[in-house]
Specification:
The complex is a heterodimer. By secondary structure, chain A is an alpha/beta fold. Chain A contains 16 helices and 19 strands. In chain A, strands 5-4-3-6-7 form a five-stranded parallel beta sheet. In chain A, strand 1 and strand 2 form a beta hairpin. In chain A, 61% of the residues are buried. Chain B is built from eight helices and seven strands; from the N terminus they run E-H-H-E-H-E-H-E-H-E-E-E-H-H-H. Chain B is globular, with a radius of gyration of 18 Å. Classes of the chains: A alpha/beta, B alpha/beta.
Chain lengths: 468, 192
Amino acid sequence: MTARTLFEKLWATHEVVAETADTPAVLYIDLHLTHEVTSPQAFSSLRARKLSVRRTDLTFATLDHSTPTDTDQLFGKIPIRMESAAKQIHEFEKNCAEFGVELLGLTHKQRGIVHIIGPELGLTQPGKTIVCGDSHTSTHGAFGALAFGIGTTEVGDVLATQCLLQRKPKTLAVNVEGALPFGVTAKDLVLAIIRELGVGGGTGYVIEYRGSTIRALSMDERMTVCNMSIEAGARAGLVAPDETTYAYLQGKPHAPQGPAFDRAVAHWKTLPTDAGARFDRQIDIDASMLEPMITYGTNPGMSIGISAKVPTQANDEVHAKALAYMGLTAGQAVQGQPVEFVFLGSCTNARLSDLRAAAAIVKGHKVAAGVRFLVVPGSQQIKHLAEAEGLDRVFIDAGAEWRESGCSMCLGMNGDLVSRGSYCVSTSNRNFEGRQGVGARTLLASPITAAASALAGCVSDPRSRLTA
Amino acid sequence: MDPIHTIRSRTVVMPSSNIDTDQIMPARFLTTTTRDGLGKHLFADWRYDGRGQPVADFILNSSEAVGCQILVAGRNIGCGSSREHAPWGLYDYGFRAVISTEIADIFRNNCLKNGLIPVVVDEATHASLIETPGAVVSIDLEHCVLTLPDQSTVPFVIERFARHCLLNGVDETGYLLSKSAEITSYEARTQR
């Protein structure tokens, strides 16, 4: 039999109807995750066509995007301040009830950012196809699942038929070798990969991250890498499942249990790319050459090592426009740039390991005067685990705000916003103009760079605060 | 959805590359629960200043943009968020086609499902369109041909099934629903 890639195996086992020149493949979806922002119009379409949700058992719902992270608003002590957000949340609650979709509602202990709770609950598993009306669905690819973001019309298609019409994408291997140097995290690695590929370089491809560096990453770190695949234009990123994956999933509530788990592992072991399988394209990354990364521009490809200077690109209007927006000039260092906000959160970097790494830097220190440091755990479960370890006290004692889980300041839909013209070191995934608020200036970085910057009051190299 | 065969219009040119969907439709307008009325928020942060006044030199605020149905944009338009609110806003504003050298995957899919034709052209054609804002261009979906102001023609590629749907004013959901028997049989066969 011909050697096949992980992607090709995932694709082949989910084709309900194979593609032809005239029609795309009908692809079966094993897990459909939904949230309040990209589903209302899909439920309306279902209602208009008098359709039901085909597989409520494969559909899960959570509240994250426009959801308050303020405790009193979340738990109903005071009304949700943003009226439009409140309306959207309530409409979602109604839709889920009417169509029989299980919703992890506002006060549910398992609620959280959709891409954090899927893995955490064991819903995300190797070999599955997973979609959500959110581009960061690529996160789930860390488990060897084919996971990608879809639009709202497609959300409706999946609700009604559990299938999508898809043309087969091409495959791109990103081979990463070399140990990550001291102070260099998975976030820095993926920022370097995006810089290498460019923000459109992955368009039309599914990425498989391969090589010894990737194998050595924890599941949390693999999720950070896969999460940002879309920032290189690739709808999906994959990491082949291995012992790290199985160990993570064992005992998770929705993962197979007992003998069923062993059978599942035996199947998952057949998924990795066969020796000799061909990719449409390959790139190589030497991780040992990296340093902590920081963005300076208005897309995630515009990044530099923290000790480097903002590049000069003559006659490049996009570069010039980005620097004007950011209030930075070519040739200057970003390190040392004063900041008014630091955001530790988002589906990229709000897992327990991210909070621990940041807390280790913050512990016993104070957030610099004039800096608002918002810490937003990725899920309520992570929040409670962090509190059991005392991480909340570390952040609160330092002067940070400790919030309920949600997407929060990554996109500011719930009112957690960066003010106009202010700089924010953010562990999220997008530094687009206005992403964190109108006129906000986002500097993407790792959790430890964010923590070090919060203490210094300016963009700061985390290595000086780490003990080797 | 109404069938679409040909679009003939002057162009609006936005030459920047990597115009992301956060620019096309900023997140604060995503709390809507309908598809309607998003045209007024299209490119809101480039179109209006901090006091909500139109930014004088932004193309959509110029009289030349009125009635234009074709947006010519720099490379990789539609990158970022999967929000379908971006094509909903473009359509509501009046656009019926987007031309670039590269169009981001999710955005392209979303356009096709909302009566917006994504047209990918070569660098030279793109450069000529960028240089001549307001040029009258015609897009023939049936024959997949773009006709430039000098009457020269450029073929373009569009996924065949999506083209069929646009030409006939039908949507993909109906097709998927017609595959119900195959889906049921797949579920039984694979124990899903």
